[in-house]
Amino acid sequence: MHIDIISIFPELVRHWFSQGVIGRALQKKEDPPAALYYWNPREYSDDRHQRVDDRPFGGGPGMVMQYEPLARVAQAINASGDKPLHIYLSPQGSTFNHTLAAELARKPRLVLWCGRYEGIDQRFIEEYIDAEISIGDFVLSGGEIAAAIVIDTVLRLVPGVLGDEQSALEDSFQQKLLDHPHYTRPENTATIRAPEILLSGNHALIERWRLKQALGRTFLHRPDIFCQLDLSDAQQNLLNEFLTEQQFGEPS
Ligand code: SAM
């Protein structure tokens, strides 16, 4: 996958992906599964101070990112191959979630536009933007954090990015369920012992326990997701077992 990031602060995003599992995937010498490219609109500005913003028509506070430098970047990107999907990170866009991330992960190339100030001149949005994505009902100072969230989430779903593909498949939301709880050594902390089943080595029982926890957590914490599930009889029984254990404790 090829992702272009357009920002007047590209280092913010570049730094984020210099480490960790995504950083390692991007730095693979042979066949990296994804590549990030950075474009700074200042380099496409006619202004001798490389400004890309100006006062809003009609007055009011703040500045607006100008059409022209952004349009030059968009034209350069569109001229360099098949037209990619241009996404403006904006609090006014569709709310980002797993389903949208999975859809984006199937695209060969994404272009992520990071706004600053009061945002981008509307004429640029109308002419070049295919979709607007928000990461939530709040306002950030710039689109870079939002772009980093979209990139991280999408790349986890691109084959070859995670060391173990199975781990993304088991994450929350993949099966319309929250993930089960996780434990590691030591077996005992000062106050709590890890669940006995996880220490038993019985993989069938461990899988059953994990599904039960995932069903129970989704039921308790995310009724909005839970109500979309069509449970089999076996899953309903597992959930009932979970709820009984919540009330009376797990059998020892
Ligand atoms: N005046 C704009 C509004 O109220 O809709 C907000 C502009 S905000 C200060 C500057 C930039 O941050 C936006 O152009 C956008 O790129 C980014 N941004 C802010 N909140 C965001 C959100 N919830 N999701 C995605 N991007 C966001």
From TrEMBL:
InterPro entries xref list: Alpha/beta_knot_MTases, tRNA_m1G_MeTrfase_C_sf, tRNA_m1G_MeTrfase_TrmD, tRNA_m1G_MTases_N, tRNA_MeTrfase_TRMD/TRM10
Upper taxonomic lineage: Bacteria, Pseudomonadati, Pseudomonadota, Gammaproteobacteria, Cardiobacteriales
Predominant localisation class: cytoplasm
Binding site residues for S-adenosyl-L-methionine: 115, 135-140
Catalyzed chemical reaction(s): guanosine(37) in tRNA + S-adenosyl-L-methionine = N(1)-methylguanosine(37) in tRNA + S-adenosyl-L-homocysteine + H(+)
Keywords assigned: Cytoplasm, Methyltransferase, S-adenosyl-L-methionine, Transferase, tRNA processing
NCBIfam families: PRK00026.1, trmD
Subunit structure: Homodimer.
EC number: 2.1.1.228
Gene: trmD
Keyword S-adenosyl-L-methionine: yes
Entry protein name: tRNA (guanine-N(1)-)-methyltransferase
Originating species: Cardiobacterium valvarum
